[in-house]
Structure to design on (677 residues):
């Protein structure tokens, strides 16, 4: 019984070829912009000497969270990274994560809000998100190359796609979880949909949206590492190099640096997301 | 003046309301329609008026459609058919902006579970409705502050709802509605989530506020005692339909249907209450031996009543004196009461008389009813207006 292979791959190839052919002038232009912003950000961050950067980070964390342990831990972690000679790779990774996260949030949060308001949009978005979240991360690397060429922009593109779903999902969830009696109350007092969004939905959904942002940042960090395969450089690049040269120690050093960055980002974001204590 | 006129109002829940409407027209019941086409009948042909300054309590067991009915009044739920005229304007046909205008200015709503915004202070919560109207921050906070003062919470303005007890939270809910200075208050089971003692306090407070403000209030309750206490009139619902619209006394004494009778009987606390438990232990008596007409008049003025019971030195009931008679005596320069006291036909009841019987006894009595023991010793007085309230109030703990 031979019904032949269905041409799923061929159809997708044709589709992407078509898009590349007609859109690449746009994507290449976009790539230039992203490249410029990213390298400016990287250069700006690297212009601060490492000890100064560590001190500033610690101060920022203290002001944001008032958490002494987190503050001290961050200082020690960052000093270790500096000591291992991974400073510029770390800064490069942080810049990549920052840019991709901002892009993912700029699209994801408004999309989540709209999906919460319009059930039609939600029905469209949900299956797409399901696909996005179950598709292996590596697959996103492939189409990024024809659109953007090897390099950091392609890395950012696949990272944005990979890390966006939680921003959409958590925003949607946070707004949908607003207690119905509060929604009814705002309607009974004559709120417009916009007033309800600003005065009720977003403030109450904020902790959930914050959790989504945290997830997005974590996913972006993990994807930025994977994206080193298409030229993302940074800490992922160090790991990738170590794999190719079988330098186990060097590989683990870069791995430890990634873990440190991840823990600092996660703890700070969790702290910000926790509901403020009312005195 | 009629403030709200609800006429032939229907609400069907389900995708094909017309099919359910046809079945209703054929005389099918709510349960039959649910069984046949799985449509819910929320409100079935409701017609009633609410007059300006009146408190109408919509009462029924859960599932009777009372919450649905009140939500049709400000169209939180869109009715299937019928009309709701508020000041002559049909709410049913209003467009979105007319509807917002109505909700923002004319109708304040108070919710069963308070529905306070947890991320806002008490003051900001009270200002919510004004904020929706677009009132500038300074003015709306001032008005919200005044509304909080009305409910005695001005000291808590900067607190968050989670720091307040249930009763206080509902006061904020009430202040939020009052801050709009609406003509109409819709109160959906407003006190049902509170424990009995607090609930009674809140009922008293609402009565006090209502004495001052004379709002038009539509109050939803499943509690007969509450309905008797608060309602100028009661709308009794069953299965989405209205079974009786009447004053509390009429509902108690002349139930329109067996259902009402059973409803009243089930909760009938008049049986366990006696004359003694509903009477006022009155200090407002005149002493035959010592009080002159001027003293009697002063006491009447003080207690704001038109009759005084007169007792002798053993506190035995002698008779009753009216304000007119006392004034005449005073004008004649008499300094004792004996000539003005009416001694005949003074109706008294024993302290153990069931409260149920009191309605009939008092039905055509021109003055309050005296309560006296076997030795004719004066115990207290029952005033018609307070009888119902007293029954309602004490029923909760009887």
């Amino acid at each position: 019984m031979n019904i032949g292979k269905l041409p799923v791959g061929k159809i997708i190839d044709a589709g992407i070829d078509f898009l590349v052919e007609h859109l690449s002038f746009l994507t290449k232009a976009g790539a230039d912009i992203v490249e410029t912003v990213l390298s400016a950000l990287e250069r700006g961050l690297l212009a601060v000497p490492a000890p100064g950067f560590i001190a500033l980070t610690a101060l920022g964390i203290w002001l944001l969270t008032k958490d002494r342990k987190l503050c001290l831990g961050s200082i020690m972690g960052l000093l270790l990274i500096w000591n291992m000679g991974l400073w510029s790779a770390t800064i490069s990774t942080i810049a990549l994560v920052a840019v991709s996260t901002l892009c993912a949030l700029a699209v994801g949060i408004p999309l989540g809000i709209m999906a919460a308001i319009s059930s039609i949009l939600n029905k469209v978005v949900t299956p797409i998100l399901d696909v996005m979240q179950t598709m292996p991360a590596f697959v996103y690397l492939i189409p990024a190359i024809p659109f953007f060429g090897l390099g950091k922009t392609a890395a950012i593109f696949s990272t944005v796609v990979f890390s966006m779903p939680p921003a959409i999902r958590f925003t949607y969830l946070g707004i949908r979880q607003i207690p119905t009696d509060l929604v009814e109350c705002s309607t009974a007092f004559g709120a417009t949909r916009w007033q309800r969004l600003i005065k009720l939905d977003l403030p109450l959904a904020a902790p959930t949206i914050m959790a989504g942002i945290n997830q997005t940042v974590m996913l972006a960090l993990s994807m930025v590492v994977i994206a080193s395969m298409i030229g993302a450089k940074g800490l992922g690049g160090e790991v990738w190099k170590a794999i190719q040269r079988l330098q186990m120690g060097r590989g683990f050093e870069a791995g430890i640096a990634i873990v440190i960055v991840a823990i600092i980002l996660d703890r700070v974001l969790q702290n910000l997301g926790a509901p403020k204590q009312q005195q | 003046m009629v403030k709200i006129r609800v006429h032939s109002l229907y609400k069907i829940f389900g995708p094909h309301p017309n099919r359910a409407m046809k079945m209703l027209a054929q005389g099918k019941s709510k349960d039959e329609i649910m069984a046949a086409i799985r449509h819910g009948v929320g409100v079935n042909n409701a017609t009633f008026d609410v007059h300006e300054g009146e408190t109408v309590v919509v009462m029924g067991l859960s599932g009777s459609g009372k919450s649905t009915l009140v939500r049709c009044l400000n169209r939180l739920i869109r009715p299937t058919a019928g009309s709701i005229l508020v000041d002559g304007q049909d709410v049913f046909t209003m467009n979105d902006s007319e509807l917002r205008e109505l909700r923002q200015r004319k109708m304040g709503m108070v919710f069963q579970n308070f529905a306070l915004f947890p991320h806002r202070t008490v003051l900001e919560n009270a200002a919510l409705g004004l904020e929706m109207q677009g009132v500038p921050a300074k003015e709306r906070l001032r008005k919200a502050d005044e509304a909080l003062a009305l409910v005695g919470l001005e000291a808590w303005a900067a607190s968050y709802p989670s720091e307040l007890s249930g009763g206080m939270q509902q006061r904020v809910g009430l202040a939020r509605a009052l801050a709009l200075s609406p003509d109409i208050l819709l109160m959906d089971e407003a006190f049902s989530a509170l424990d009995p003692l607090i609930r009674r306090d809140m009922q008293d407070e609402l009565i006090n506020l209502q004495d001052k403000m004379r709002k038009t209030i539509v109050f939803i309750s499943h509690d007969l005692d509450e309905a008797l206490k608060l309602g100028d009139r009661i709308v009794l619902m069953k299965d989405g339909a209205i079974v009786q619209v009447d004053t509390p006394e009429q509902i108690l004494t002349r139930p329109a249907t067996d259902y009402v009778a059973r409803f009243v009987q089930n909760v009938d606390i008049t049986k366990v209450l006696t004359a003694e438990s509903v009477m006022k232990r009155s200090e407002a008596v005149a002493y035959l031996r010592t009080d002159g007409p001027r003293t009697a008049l002063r006491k009447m003025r003080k207690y704001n009543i038109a009759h005084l019971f007169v007792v002798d030195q053993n506190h035995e009931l002698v008779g009753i004196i009216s304000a007119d008679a006392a004034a005449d005596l005073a004008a004649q320069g008499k300094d004792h009461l004996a000539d003005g006291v009416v001694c005949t036909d003074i109706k008294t009841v024993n302290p153990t008389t069931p409260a149920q019987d009191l309605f009939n006894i008092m039905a055509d009595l021109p003055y309050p009813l005296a309560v006296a023991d076997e030795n004719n010793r004066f115990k207290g007085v029952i005033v018609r207006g307070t009888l119902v309230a007293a029954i309602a109030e004490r029923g909760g703990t009887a």
Q: What stands out?
A: The mean pLDDT of chain B is 86. The radius of gyration of chain B is 25 Å. Chain B has two domains: 2-266, 275-395. The CA atoms of residues 29 and 35 of chain B lie 10 Å apart.
